[in-house]
Structures are given as C-alpha cells and as structure tokens.
Amino acid sequence: MTYPLLGRIQAPGDVKRLQESELPALCEEIRQFLIESVSATGGHLSSNLGVVELTVALHRALDLPQDKILFDVGHQCYTHKLLTGRMAGFAELRQKNGLSGFPNPKESPCDTFIAGHGSAALSTAIGIARAKKLKGEPGKVVVIVGDGAFTGGMVYEGMNNVSQLNNLICILNDNKMSISKNVGQMANYLTKLRTDPKYFHVKAQMETALERIPVAGNAMVKALQGGKQLVRRGIYHSTMFEEMGFQYIGPVDGHDVLLMEQMFTNLQEQFAPIFLHVVTQKGKGLKPAEENPGEFHAVSSIDLSHLTDPELSPKDSFSTVFGSTLAEIGDDVPELCAITAAMKYGTGLNFFKHRHKERFYDVGMAEEHAVSFAAGLASQGLLPTVAIYSTFFQRAYDQIIHDVSLMHLNVLFGVDRAGLVPGDGETHQGIYDPAFFSQIGIPVFAPANYAELKYWLPHLVKDMTGPRAIRYARGNEKEALAALGCTGNLFDKIDTRPGAKVALVSYGAESEEIIAATDLLLQKKVAADAYKLTRIFPLPEGLCEALADYDMILFAEDAIRTGGIGQQLGFALQQAGWQGKYLLHAVDNSHLLHASVAELRKDQNLDAAALAADVLACIKLRRTQA
Question: Which of 128, 156, 576, 587 has the CB geometry, 3.0–4.6 Å to 544, for a possible disulfide?
Fold first, then answer.
C-alpha cells in the first residue's frame, strides 16, 4: 500500500505543510500504515489506533521540541514517531537496534521522557513545566493520559500540585479502557461526564449566549470561565478537575482532527493548567480491535486475513497455566482470592474470574493498592494471590515490605513475565524481583516448566504461610525444559557427566542455556554437570554440599547481578569453606535493549556459547598458570 501524504512527512514540523483539507486522509493513511506495519512486527496496536487524530492535531498546533509532549502510557506514541520522521524505522519496531515501542529521548529530541509504566507522566510533566517556569523558557507541556491511568493513585498526587501552571495541558484520552476494561468509581465518573445529556444541553445554550457577548480583556474571559464552572457544579455537584486547579474543557470528539487542531491552537493563551477531556475509540479503524480492544492491545505478528484471536497471553503459556491452575485450587480453598492490576488476561486470572467471580478483584493500574489491599484481606484470614508482571511489582516495593512482610501476612505473589522480556525493552524487563524479594526474606520459587508450576502452586497455596512468591517466564515452556518434568525437589541435578569437575547452575528459563552449554563443553572434551534450582530463595538445603566437590562452578541467571541469587550462592559456598573458581553470569542492568530473548541473552553473555566460552577460558588460564 502507498502512503502519499504520510510519505511527505520526513521531519518534525512537516505535518504543518499539509493543507487542512488533507488531514482526514492523512489520519486514515496513518491508521492503515499502523495496522499493516504492526501486524508484521508485533507491538501495541489498539492504543495507537485510538490516538491518531489527537496526535496529528497536537503536532499541527505545537512547536516541537520547544513544546513537550509526554505519553501515559508511552505505548500510545506510534503516531508521534511517524510525525517526527521515523516511518522507515517501523520495519524494525521493538527489534534489536530498531525503534523502541516507547518514547526514548535517545531516539529523538521530540521524545521528552521514557515512559513504559502508567500513571506517572503527569508528575513528570508538572516537573518539566515548573522547570520551564524557573528557567524562563517558552513552550507548552502537554501530557496525554489514558483513562486507565486514572485508576492509579499517582495521577492524583500530580493533580494536587498543578496550581498556576499555565503552560501545562493535561489531555485525558478517554477510551473506557486501560488494557482490560476499566474498573472502579473513576471510570463511572468519566462515564457520567461523557453521557449526561443535561450538561450538553445547558452547555450548548450557554455557548450560544456567550457568542453574542463581546469579550473585552482577560477579566471577562476569566469571569466567563467561572460561569461555566458554576454550570457544571450545578449539574454534577462535583467539579473534581476544577477543584484540583484545572480549567476543565470537554468532553470533545477525539477523532475530529480539524476540531482538535482548532482547539489546541486556541489554547495557546491560557490562564490556568488545562484539563482537556477527549473521547476516543481504542482500536479505531480495525473492526476486530474495535470490538475486542483488550485482545489487540499488544500483539505478536498477525495475519491480517485471519484475525481471530491475537495473543495478549498465548493460549499455551505460563500465564494461562498459572491462572487455570489457581482457578482449580480455588474450588478446594474457599479463602483463596485473586487480585490483578488491570491485567486479568495478561496474568491468566480471567480463568479465576469466570470460576470464582466473587473472589476476583481487578483494582486497575494500582499495584501499590493491590498489595496493600491483599494485606488487608490476609489480616482477616483470607488468602490473596496478587498476580502482576515483574516489572510492575517494582512499583509496590514499599507495600511489600511495610504492609505484608512486617506482619508476615499470608499473601502469595504471582510474578509474571519474570526474567528477560522481548520487545518492550528496558522499561519492562523482569530482572529485579529475585533480588528485592530475597532481600526482604520472602521465599521465591521459579518453576522452569508447566509441570513444576502445576506441582508447586498448590503447595504454595495450601502448605505454606506468610508472604511467598512464584515467578515464571513470559510465553510458553521450552522443549528442553519441558522434558525435565517435575521431581518435586527444591533443586535437581539435571545433567550428569562422568568425572565432571565443573558444575553449571541456574533456574527458571535460563536453565535451557546451561543444558545447551554442557553439550558444547562436552564437544571440547570438558565434562560438566548441570543443576537447576526450583526454590531460589532461601537457597535449598543441601545445595552447597552437592556442589562442594567441584573445582569450578558457573552460575547463570536472567536477573541482576547485585543482590541476585548468584551472589548469594557464591557467598554461601565461601562460608561453607569451598575454595574453587566461581563464575557468575547475570544481567547488566545499565545496558538493556529491546530485542528477542535470544538476542538479549547473547548481549548479556547469558547464552550457551558465552557460558561455555567462559568455562573454557578459565580452564585454559589455569593450565597456563600450573
């Protein structure tokens, strides 16, 4: 397909050269390009289809990079990237050395801030707007916040600090969705704003009357704005956004590009921070995505001629095995509850919801609340399971320590997308949880295949008390790990070679690489045994004794080095008196890419070739020193 209008946009500001009459056609070209491109590479589809007109209008009215645009969440930025001249890069979107799926200032000066997590961008925008004020710099700061982000508390912390920022515009992109359907009272409030006919009737009459009054100076404008606030206050008995310090405008049609451009142009003169309520349709332009936006939120490559069920979480995955197994356990454990943070499909908890609806809770994009809410349930004798992606558990670190761990409450943490994660890059890697859970003293299990997940999950639910965690990788199990089955042991010797004086140790998904590394070493006539941990913290009893007779031990983990399990094992071996050579391969968290898991492992020296090469180099060095 050709894109004559989009093809003319090679640099920031080029969109301003188009005629106003060409804008609707440009938006359709952008929408079709995104469908065609993302279906080939994978990426966030529904969210980007919904903000095309909004983004075009902003780029027409603003002067980037003097003006700043921030996105919450950053996966809404694809149209922004196209309008800043990065169309060619979409062929390698989210691939190694290709475009990031999120804003990244390293890519373009028009990308203001990295944004991969939700509810945070308003606070960042306020900081940037304040900085502009302090430095005397011109320009607007515009932050696009999805309505799903308003289920997270950080948005309200930011709203509490917007006073007198007349260079700030907060756009509520209201599409009734986060990833799963929005929940809670904020969603109900926005629905009321969208649909109450009384407001639109009074607003239309008021605007007609105001058009007949000549406006003379700022005082009159402020008085008229105050009059509109009184109208809203009379209708709703609540003006939350105005009371927080904003001038509220809306709701307006977010797919009327000409209206949006006119509105942003008119807002060049503002007297207070603006809150613009824009209503859009997530997935607009692709019928299956319009009907099931959650299904098309994040997709792998898909066949446009057979759009059936793209995978937010594959049918056969650790997430779905976790969710379906937990639902089955819930039949026998009436105290069991399940909590997610706007990710019931991504975490597999949709199975639990269908089976035990009264014990399922989606709290929205509010991980901190999810953990403290679980603590409250546990304090009253219930058994909550909190299933969240590893990267988002970071947001609830204080609550894990203060609200769960201190009182040793009976909470199970399901850590999804643990380890290296493809595509999303540095904002979404699940590499910190082994360190932060273990530092608090919370037991952590890391099944490497479905059989182990199905075996250990009932044990963690029924036989353990206090906080504990089970972590598992994104996607499906690997053939080499599935073949191991489940012994029920806390650690296993999974590969044995006669006379081996070298041991390779790992856990979870990375165990696949140590199995392959032992084969590579054997080709070089080096015998090496392989060990896989299932409970990674505390280190299993007997592990140090099992490793005591090896001259060399290599530990590999797809998590951070500092404070990780590898460092803890090295220290434990030293304390036990072992004096051999210890090699540690872990993630350098200062250097993260968006790439496939295989590419990430190679980049981090966690692939089998790198592990084997390190062992061989160490053996060679020892021989030369002998």
Answer: 576
